Amino acid sequence: MNKIMNKKNKIKTLLKFLKERYGYPEFSKDPFKLLITTILSQRTKDENTYRASKNLFSVVSTLRDIIKLPRKKLEELIKPSGMYRQKAERIVKVCKILIKKYGGKVPQTRSELMDLPGVGYKTADIVLSYGFGVPTIAVDTHVNRISKRIGLVRKEADVEEVRKTLESLVFGKDRFLINVGLIRFGQEICRPVRPKCSECPIKNICDSYNNF
Ligand code: SF4
Question: What is the DSSP letter of 26?
Answer without folding.
Answer: P
